[in-house]
Amino acid sequence: RSGRSRARRIWEGGHALLRRALSCSTPLLFVEITEGAGAGRQYVLFEDLPECVPLGDEISRCTEREGLGARGGAIDAYIPLLASRIRSMHETGIDHETLTADSVLIHRQGSRCEIAFGELESIRIRRSVSRRRVAAALARLECSLDSRGLLRHRHRVRFLRGYLRSRRHVEWKGFWREIAAARRHLPPGTETARIGSIGPAGPGVRS
User: Fold this and answer.
1) Of 170, 93, 186, 94, nearest in space to 136 by CA
2) 154-184 pLDDT, tens per residue?
3) Are 102 and 194 in contact (CB under 8 A)?
4) How far apart are CA 82 and CA 163, in angstroms?
5) What beta strand segments (E) does the chain contain?
6) How far apart are the first and last CA of the chain?
7) Vertex 120, ends 148 and 158: CA angle to 5°?
């Protein structure tokens, strides 16, 4: 892993998602400058992903536009899709190590929405994503939403039941407790942590 540059990890993470029919801003190419005055610089060129907003910002916009009463409804609208896409990601061996309200993106496509993922440097490809890693990822996402005052009890229940829909052998209340335990072990500042991947959601070239 130490031999893979940051730009390469971003490129590989994006294409790992795309091969699994999961959405992200497509990395088109990456460049690593190894010699001369620019040695050490890295660039990634992304395909534009228009009308794409972080989940937390999208819910905040709904709140500002329609009032505080719209907040719960905005989350309710995205829960089934969010649960489905995160479940698909984990079931196909993708572990997103900074899954938060900033790295989960709402991608509008006309009248419909899709879930996309940013912060591609945090993508890890595993033979399988362990239950412990799943609990940690969901705890991180929950913490980031909760820090904005966006979550209610019913949201957690609905999301978890949707996420576990294809895992009938997992008892949701027990898994709820595992997520709560994982949340207690998150490092301080997790709710606001961002690693600043190159071009996490949008177009252009960044270094």
Assistant:
1) 186
2) 888 899 999 998 776 778 888 999 999 999 9
3) yes
4) 8
5) 27-32, 42-46, 52-54, 94-96, 104-109, 112-117, 123-125, 204-206
6) 20
7) 45
